[in-house]
Amino acid sequence: MAEIASGCPKLKELDVSYCYQISHKSLATIGSHCPHLHILRRNLMNWMDPSQHVGIVPIEYLNAYPQDRDSEVAAIGKFMPSLRQLELHFSKLTGKGLALISEGCLNLEYIDLSGCRRVSRHDIANASSNLKKLKNIKKPNFYIPRSIFRTERYGHWQLYDERFQTDG
Predict the structure, then answer these.
(1) Residue 155, class by beta-carbon neighbours within 10 Å (0-12 exposed, 13-18 middle, 19+ buried)?
(2) What's the pLDDT tens digit per position in 105-118?
(3) ∠ at Cα 92 (26, 88), nearest 5°?
(4) pTM score, two decimals?
(5) Res. 142 pLDDT band, cuts 50 70 90
(6) 3-state DSSP call for residue 112?
(7) Cα(44)–Cα(17) distance, rounded to whole angstroms?
(8) Residues with Cβ < 8 Å from 17, sequence gap 6 or more?
(9) Are 42 and 17 in contact (CB under 8 A)?
(10) Residue 61 belongs to what H/E stretch?
(11) Residue 168 has pLDDT above 50, yes or no
């Protein structure tokens, strides 16, 4: 990544989605060598349903993914101040990580937090108040359908699902 980043100082858009070997150090290197980076896509697969990964992402990659959930977004907040658009589908960032982004990426106009289950509405409100140029934020869906957890349903749940047309 260091060779690519140092050879592309005018890079404006980068998509490193689903690249499980990209670390927070790689993101810091990219940010420090590419000061004109305006769009970053760092989307991950749905970690709440591991069956989606079978045959696509080796289990070793998923197990090696950093457990320090905010290390990547800390690097983004510190080394990518020119970002205007940021996608973080299914990131494991926390409210602290979102605060780091809102403090370091003051030019953000769009942020996509789809699937980011570890941030609360309160965290999002606090970060949004700091981002004066923010025009659009895609918030995580805080409703988690029971089907994701593949739990057995009792008779009354089936009646409820039929009556209210849930994810059944």
Answers:
(1) exposed
(2) 999 999 999 989 89
(3) 65
(4) 0.79
(5) low
(6) strand
(7) 6
(8) 41, 42, 43, 44, 87, 89
(9) yes
(10) helix 59-64
(11) no
Angle subtended at Cα 136 by Cα 36 and Cα 38, rounded to the nearest 5 degrees: 5
Q: What's the CA gap between 42 and 94, in Å, rounded?
A: 15
CB atoms within 10 A of CB 33: 19
User: Average pLDDT for residues 67-91, to the nearest whole number?
Assistant: 93
Q: Band of the pLDDT at 68, cuts 50, 70, 90?
A: low
Q: Which has more pLDDT, 46 or 104?
A: 104
Q: How many CA within 13 A on the CB side of residue 154?
A: 1
Q: Say how far apart CA 160 and CA 166 lie, in whole Å.
A: 8
Q: Residue 163: its pLDDT value, please? A: 55
What is the three-class DSSP state of 12?
coil
Identify residue 67 by its one-letter amino acid code.
Answer: Q
> Which residue is it, tokens 């949004």?
128
Residue whose C-alpha is closest to residue 102's, from 120, 77, 71, 83:
77
CB 98 within 8 A of CB 123: yes
At 142, the amino acid letter reads F
Tell me the residue type at 44. L
What is the per-residue pLDDT for 105? 98
User: Which of the two residues, 136 and 47, has the higher pLDDT score?
Assistant: 136
